[in-house]
Amino acid sequence: MEEQDPPKYLLIESLKTDFANAIKRCEKILSQIGKVYPVEDDEDATVEIEQLSELFSKMRDIPLDQLPLRLVKEVGKETREVFRDLTELEGDVYSKQADPQRISNLLASLANRLDNLLGSLQRWLPFLILREMPTLEASAVERRLKNLKDEQDASIERLTKTVGAAVERANAAATNIEEKDKIAAAALGDIGVSEHAEKFATVQEEHATAAKYWFWGLGGIDLIYCGGCVSALLVDRD
Amino acid sequence: MVAFLLYWLIEIENTWDSPRNVHKVLFKIAVLTTLFYLIAQSVKNFRINKHLEVVNRHRATALRTFRTFVENAGEKEDVRQAVLIETTKTIFAPVSTGYVEGEDDGPNSKIIELINLGRGK
């Protein structure tokens, strides 16, 4: 018998609990890292911790109740991955034996996972804002929509630059190919002309050699002829 | 030379119709004919080969200098076309060398006509 999914409200409640636990555990582990490791000296680790703190603040703002079922399931899976990374990080931090570089790497991995998780959720933010409109103040809606517009503008600008650069590169490549084509055609023409010139020169040499042979052959026959005549004159007829 | 040949050819011993005389005259005619044939053939082949040698040298020279003329013409399309036509004529049209009798100097080559047709002239 096929296993049925739990109802949506249970999944959302579970997700809320997971998020709260994740936030709590992360805050705890971050404070522990600050005690055990001198993160002030490690620039990468400091950046990762700041990034994680920012991500947590974003996670608190997400209206989980209004997410569609498919997204809830997807986020649930990603949250489990976050927990796995978190557990690994906790084991290393509490054992106090891990290399600071490894801690930094684990923090980066965790930040990436949280970033992906929030990325999945942020695709739905415009719809969530629209749904929240009746309950939110006008200034809050305006602020959120402005933020979204800025993000979209930045994305469009980035895309325009990328596409423009790609088009320029493609045009440059096409021009280059045309020029190379012309050069290759000219080179092939030169090769063809030179090849035929060489063939004509070879044939000319062959005919020159043959003409020389015929000339000496003619001389030989003339010699025989003249010799015959002279011998006929000188022969004793008696 | 002709007198000598006649003398040598019709040299007779006794009477004209003796078998020995007939045999000698026929033999001499055969020898002379062979010699003349060999000489004529040798001269003909010599002239043909000299003619072809000159023609091919002319073609090779035309092709070797062709690019130089085209490059010096620059962007002038008319000059380029003229050089191309002249080179093509040199290669495909009959060339008079003086070695072969009855040479035709007229540009009657079908290829030249086809090129002119292609240029719309």
Provide a brief overview of the structure.
The complex is a heterodimer of chains A (238) and B (121). By secondary structure, chain A is mainly α.
Largest sheet of chain A: none
The amount of helix of chain B comes to over 70%
CA-atom Rg of chain B in angstroms: 27 Å
The multimeric state of the shown protein is: heterodimer
Question: What structural category arises from helix and sheet content of chain A?
Answer: mainly alpha
Order of helices and strands of chain A: HHHHHH
CATH architecture of the domain at 8-135 in chain A: Up-down Bundle
The CATH class of the domain at 8-135 in chain A is identified as Mainly Alpha
CATH topology tier name of the domain at 8-135 in chain A = Four Helix Bundle (Hemerythrin (Met), subunit A)
Q: Helix- and strand-based class of chain B? A: mainly alpha
Count of DSSP E strands of chain A?
0
What portion of residues of chain A is helical?
Answer: over 70%
- Tell me the fraction of residues in β-strands of chain B, as a range: under 5%
Structural features, described:
The complex is a heterodimer of chains A (238) and B (121). Chain A is mostly helical and 238 residues long. Chain A has a domain at 8-135: Four Helix Bundle (Hemerythrin (Met), subunit A) (Up-down Bundle). Chain A contains 6 helices and no strands. The termini of chain A are far apart. Chain B is built from 4 helices and no strands. Chain B has 121 residues and is mainly α. The model of chain B has no long low-confidence stretch (mean pLDDT 79). Chain B has one domain (20-118). In chain B, helix 2 (19-73) runs antiparallel to helix 3. Chain B has helices at 2-9, 19-73, 77-92, 110-118. The interface between A and B is medium-sized, with 27 and 25 residues.
List the helices and strands and how they pair.
The complex is a heterodimer of chains A (238) and B (121).
Chain A lengths: L7 H29 L6 H19 L7 H27 L4 H23 L2 H8 L5 H97 L4
Chain B lengths: L1 H8 L9 H55 L3 H16 L17 H9 L3
